[in-house]
Specification:
It contains 13 helices and 40 strands. By secondary structure, it is α+β, with helices and mostly antiparallel strands.
């Protein structure tokens, strides 16, 4: 087979897409190579020693050392030895697609690709690579074939994919533990790569060469999520989250894995400007999605976290008809789209946290009238944002899901926040025989369960904002009604987290969690220390850093999370929250370092206004920002919300200044940020 393959590889090379050849030192080994369109990224796949290894270079620097590929099946055993490259096909693409909503309206999808056929005895499988200018993706495909004809099912015991990082003791990583009890809700650790144990993705590192990378996955469907398990120093294996019976993935011949992704950039901001994850997902499958509406909401939510209200019934019950109407009045007055109401349905009394079977998703408490509040909201131009907490009892939720979604549809509810509060590994599944099993949030069972809710909601014109979710892998492109997720430590930890989110937390999130997609962080707390500045649990930011979060932490739905009365006390600062949109024409990260600071600018999709959000960790800093992103033919009024001279998150969090100045695209503006401070600017086109 050597001559036909060599002829094919030479033909491919002539196309200028792939360079591939027989390794000269060993006639039996083959290597195929792929470059990104700008030729900065280089991938090589070899079958040296009858094993498949890939390697990735960027700008002449190694970012992934030779790393193993392979699988272990219950039925087939290990598929990582006796491997031979037997064929390669190639293609390239340069197109642009439009997001119905997003951080940018138009996304360029530009890559070179190769599909390599590998043979193991009589079994063949494919590894498909795509090389973009901002990183790579690769995935496995095991087609139906004679060698698998006797198998109706295939059980994956282990995926052997490796990511071997160079210079593990000198390279730096930002990570949270994988497969822990608190799901994804941890403060990030900053350590040498060699000190990482088992980490969730996105997993971000700055290599000793100065190259920044983030390892993640895209298009996670009908498969287990991947965490990274460090074996030898710097060598991480794709550790698939198991079912309760220990099987990693239950599948059948003809399956395709999610994409394994590596975003690559010479600067930290390059990671923020990447579209790799979205581009590796399938296009919109829902058709017309004009009913998916970005916007801003308030909610009966924060009061429960600071113990001013309760989710359960009683004298402090938050989710009452009268309280919802009061919030709707506030929303209408200040131009918010919706009001989230948590705790309206039967089940919140008692030990709901440990017993999700108590929830009804169609029965409300006596003091909450769904019809009255939705009719009232309709008159006010404010929608009710629905809420379903499962407490991890997903079988109970699935049994009621269609009736619950039908009920909301009948009352004009078009967005639902869902919750899966349960310790990691404690999702309750009841099988067809009534046997209870406990699964992980990111195992194959729950991957499919989350997606089922999205598909059922879409049939009814409903969007879903998932809390305690499976991590985002870009499926919002395929299912645009998956409008937001949580999936990290959010604002509520500042109410009771002990410790709360530290000053660097939101300076790390853009480079880690946010690389996967939108987050419902719930920013905008104005009463930063309800129990006093010396309290342990409080918001460790200045007030203007809370404003900056609306630009820095992208979500198409943003919450003004605080109590209405706290906004009334500071209407001057609240104006920015009223003005800032949630749907963007384009977004650009223009300055930043992981865990230190970030500066984002975004252009309103509806007009020529731009918005800037900048924030820093506990270190005060000044950053000069060129305004060359503005339209050179226009003049702008910069409406600036910044830290005052005495501002400090610990002692003077409310010291802020609001000022305006005329600017154009040739100007430079200096951002002066206090300790855990920030700046928010609206550039209003004149």
């Amino acid at each position: 087979m050597g001559q036909p393959l060599l002829h094919h590889l030479q033909k491919v090379s002539a196309l200028g897409i792939i360079i591939a050849a027989l390794l000269p030192s060993m006639a039996s080994a083959k290597a195929v190579q792929l470059h990104s369109p700008d030729r900065q990224i280089h991938i090589q796949l070899t079958d040296d020693n009858n094993q498949a290894h890939y390697q990735v270079n960027f700008d002449g620097k190694t970012v992934i050392n030779p790393s193993k590929l392979g699988m272990v099946f219950k039925q087939l055993g290990r598929i990582d030895q006796q491997l031979q490259i037997v064929d390669v096909t190639t293609h390239s693409n340069d197109s642009t697609w439009e997001q119905p909503w997003g951080e940018r309206q138009f996304v360029r999808d530009h890559y070179n690709a190769m599909t390599v056929k590998l043979k193991h005895n009589e079994l063949v499988f494919n590894v498909e690579f795509k090389a973009f200018n901002d990183g790579i993706g690769f995935r496995y495909h095991f087609p139906k074939q004679a060698a698998l004809a006797q198998y109706t099912t295939l059980d994956i015991i282990e995926e052997l994919t490796e990511f071997s990082l160079p210079d593990a003791h000198q390279s730096q990583a930002w990570w949270i533990p994988g497969r822990g009890w608190n799901r994804y809700e941890y403060l990030y650790q900053h350590t040498p790569v060699s000190k990482v144990d088992r980490a969730h993705t996105p997993f971000t590192a700055k290599l000793s060469s100065g190259v920044h990378i983030s390892i993640h996955e895209a298009a996670l469907t009908d498969y287990a999520a991947m965490v990274l398990d460090q074996r030898r120093d710097g060598t991480f294996r794709a550790d698939l989250t198991p079912w309760s019976d220990g099987i990693r993935v239950k599948t059948k011949p003809g399956f395709t894995t999610p994409w394994r992704t590596i975003q690559i950039a010479d600067a930290a901001t390059g990671l923020l400007n990447s579209d790799l994850i979205l581009n590796l997902n399938e296009p919109n499958q829902l058709g017309d999605v004009s009913w998916v509406q970005p916007g801003k909401y308030i909610g009966i939510w924060w009061g429960m976290h600071i113990n001013e209200n309760t989710w359960g019934s009683g004298p402090k019950h938050g989710a009452t008809t009268s309280e919802t109407k009061r919030y709707m009045d506030f929303a209408a007055q200040y131009d918010f789209d919706g009001v989230l109401v948590e705790g309206w349905n039967i089940g919140w009394d008692g030990s709901w946290f440990h017993n999700g079977d108590v929830f009804s998703f169609t029965q409300s408490y006596d003091d909450f009238d769904l019809l009255k509040v939705t009719e009232y909201g309709l008159k006010q131009g404010v929608r009710l944002v629905g809420h379903h907490e499962t407490s991890g009892s997903v079988t109970n939720y699935r049994n009621q899901m269609q009736d619950a979604y039908d009920l909301y549809q009948q009352h004009g509810v078009t967005q639902i926040k869902t919750g899966y509060v349960a310790d990691g590994g404690d999702i309750k599944r009841v099988d067809e025989n009534g046997v209870v099993h406990h699964e992980w949030h990111d195992g194959q069972f729950m991957v499919n369960e989350y997606l089922y809710s999205i598909q059922q909601a879409a049939k009814r014109g409903i969007s879903i904002n998932t809390h305690e979710p499976i991590k985002d892998t870009g499926l919002r492109r395929t299912y645009p009604n998956w409008i937001a997720r949580e999936g990290a430590r959010g604002q509520e930890f500042n109410a009771w987290g002990t410790p709360p989110n530290n000053p660097s937390h939101t300076a790390i999130l853009p480079y880690t969690r946010m690389l996967s997609g939108p987050m419902d962080f719930t920013p905008g707390i104005f009463n930063l220390a309800p129990e006093g500045l010396d309290a342990v649990n409080r918001v460790q930011t200045t007030l203007t850093k809370q404003l900056a979060l609306y630009v820095v932490l992208y979500s198409p739905i943003q919450m003004a999370a605080d109590l209405p009365r706290n906004y009334v006390e500071r209407l001057d600062a609240f104006q920015f929250i009223q003005d800032v949109p949630t749907d963007w024409q384009q977004s650009i990260a223009i300055s930043g370092e992981i865990g230190e600071h970030v500066v984002f600018v975004r252009q309103n999709r509806a007009n020529n206004d731009w918005y800037l959000g900048a924030l820093t960790n506990e270190t005060p800093r000044s950053v000069d920002v060129k305004l060359d992103f503005l339209d050179s033919a226009k003049k702008y009024q910069a409406q600036i919300y910044r830290d005052g001279d005495k501002a400090h998150w610990l002692t003077e969090p409310y010291d802020y200044v609001i000022e305006t100045k005329a600017v154009t695209a040739i100007d430079t503006i200096t951002l002066k940020m206090a300790a855990s401070g920030g700046t928010a600017i609206r550039f209003k086109a004149l």
